[in-house]
Amino acid sequence: MNIEEWDEYKDFIKAIEEKNATISENPVLKSVATYIFNTSGKKLRPLIIMLSAKACSGDHKRAIDASLAVEAIHTASLVHDDILDEGTTRRNMPSVHEKYNVMAAILCGDFLISKSIQWISSYGEKVVWDFGRSGYLLCEGEVMDSMIERGQMSVEQYTECIYKKTAALFEISARIGSRIGAGDNEKVVDAFGLYGKELGMAYQITDDLLEEFDIYEDKESGILSDSLFSIYARTMSKSEAAKKTVKIVEGHLLEAKKALDCVKNSDAKDKLLYLTDYVNTLLDNIRTSDILKA
Ligand code: FPP
Ligand code: MG
Fold it and tell me: What is the distance in A from the centroid of ligand 2 to the CA of 283?
């Protein structure tokens, strides 16, 4: 499967281009916001929303504004994170504060958060409530990440931190999408939330693991936080720590797949399952590297 060929992906890219054309009357904000709120990146969260809506018998086009909202708050969080982390590149381009300046980056983040509130506002109270929750959890996760020095985080703190920093937005994306499709069927919404949460945990643990081994080329961070691998590696060999980390990710991916048993098979469900395979494939960078042999 090639994600970029999916209708949901193509429709989302078109929607970003349309929104960006008139995103602000202010030329400075328009330039800064469109620099980062663009068509690059994997668009995992918007895909989760649109595919969850479709897997629950909805129309993914009804979920596009919600997808834009989640992508906008996610982008805002990365712009602010790059200031805090001293990140110099993101998605193969200079980070916003590097290209412009810190003031522009703070305001660009604030601007995108405000846009996201507009775009989510028409979906009703339950969706907006979940969306607000994702925002404050992002902040709580980032505070933990910024305040606990590398070498000091426990497994429990790491798990809480990445749930709040990453997995909660995946969880809420799946909840929002399934609610758009299935209405207020809370059992289904909770099951999709579990899918998103487990996928998000797997994604962030993998992302942190790949960063430990410098496997990414599209971003550079100045400050490296603890990862599950670095915590394990305090008390065991690097190869054992990497193996244990890979096992934990595989467990989360299995739970994510199981959570989708609540809906019948469909093209959209296959694509959601494929997103778990996509994260699994990222682990091949570790499985095939010398680190596991040491
Ligand atoms: C990237 O983590 C950062 C996040 C996933 C969340 C950042 C959150 C904030 C700055 C709070 C802002 C809140 C709102 C509502 C916008 P990372 O540094 O581990 O990943 P990276 O390597 O991609 O930078
Ligand atoms: Mg960062």
Answer: 20
